[in-house]
Amino acid sequence: MLLILQLSTTQAQKFTLNDVIQLARDQSIAGKQAATLRKTNYWKYRTFLSDFKPQLSLDGSLPSFTRSFVQVTQPDGTIAFQPVSNNNSILNLSLSQNIPLTGGSIFVQQQLQRFDNFLNNTTLYNGIPFAIGLTQPLFRFNQMKWDRRTEPLRYAESNQQYIEALEQVAVDATSLYFDLLVAQVNLQIAETNRANNDTLYKIAVHKLDLGKISQNDLLQLQLSVLNAKKDLASARQTAEVASLKLRSYLNTNVANSGRPQPFELVVPTQLTEFPVDISKALTEAFANRSASIGFRRQLLEAERDTEKARKENGLNATLNAEFGLSNRGTQPSDVYVRPQDREFLEVRFVLPIMTWGRAKARTETALANQQLIVQTVEQNKRVFEQQIYTQVTLLDMLRQQVKLTAEADQIAQNRYQIAQDRFKLSNLSVTDLGIAIQDKDRARRDAILALRDYWQAFYSLRLLTLYDFETNHKITY
């Protein structure tokens, strides 16, 4: 479901992590770029497929008028400049079809030519009512055969890259979400500390009058009030910057009375328990990731380049053959009355005789590049497997960290409340109270940071495998 920010009220809107991720996929520049790139790759592939389908075309020159003096060689070898004024128009209708198996092409054509000589006021027609022809490379590299193997892989790779791009958007949005969430938590801590320190300072002033606290302790509490105010100002500025970064990434520019409406983020504490088997993760990663498809494509392209180097270093020949009918006359209909046979056969070839080792050098270079690509792909596979293994083990560890830090946070909050009550009853020192405050703040931040690390690892695993282990389904869009 498409989520759109409606900033029409003065209250801050609440957003969950899933809300922000969906907004990022729908509205962010990165998400739109991924969709545009996917569309571009789709039409590139459609263009590739169209090259293997029959192509009907009409070409020619109509009119083709010339009025000039042209050079004409005379029988005695001299040159005379004769005036010409003519129109030589031609139309050609052809239907062609590539042959991927052989790398050649076959065509059928029909042609009509008209020549008007304006100097003697005559008109002649020449035409080809029907012709069929073949162009066939011999002993040459067949580009079409290899394109039919590599281009579908390239298209499949681009489709998976689109899914990866949206998952990368989720990873980036999660990072920005927790940057703002941490800033908001720090702001809440700073506001609470300022209010508590103000209250404790007032209590300390009363205790000083009663002689239950020293001047040094009062000054220490007064310093704590000033530090709390500074921390509050810094926390506000950090939260505003983090909010601006998230808003910019989500591409939301709507403002309320000239001031952007603040986000209110929900702490994602609900973690789903689900097993992640390493062998399953590896299987899904190699089945789904564009890099896995890219490995196969790179190996094929290396094999293709080696074959190309071998075949282009030897005999290269092309067979051009055509058979049809042709005629001429003073009327267009004369072309189609009792036309004559028309044949054309040609074999063009190039045979390198002395290349000073260039042919061998090209072949050896292609073979060396193929070996390098095989080795590089093998190394990338190992790195890929290591990333999956690391991410799976990291996710399990971070899930435990979230539970431990949440318990520590609750304990620290309770301890601080007890310390605050004891201070009010005059049986706790200012130093011990300060330690309780620091422990409370540290535990709260650690709990949020543990959640951030977990959710970043969660979406990173989705990105690496393109598989949702919560629902046990491949990720598709």
Total count of strands: 11
Q: Which bin fits the share of residues in helices?
A: 55-70%
- What is the residue-averaged pLDDT? 88
State the separation between the terminal residues, measured CA to CA. Answer: 13 Å
Plain-language structure description:
With 477 residues, the chain is of the alpha+beta class. The protein has two domains: 13-50 and 145-308 and 359-474, Outer membrane efflux proteins (OEP) (Up-down Bundle), CATH 1.20.1600; 55-99 and 104-141 and 315-351, no CATH class. Helix content is 57%, strand content 22%. It has helices at residues 17-27, 29-50, 143-210, 215-250, 278-288, 290-311, 358-424, 430-465, and strands at residues 13-15, 55-61, 65-73, 79-99, 104-117, 122-138, 263-265, 316-329, 340-350, 467-468, 473-474. The strands form three sheets. Strands 2, 3, 4, 5, 6, 8 and 9 form a seven-stranded antiparallel sheet that branches. A two-stranded parallel ribbon has the order 1-7. Helix 3 (143-210) packs antiparallel against helix 6 (290-311). 21% of the residues are buried. Mean pLDDT is 88; it is low at 1-10.
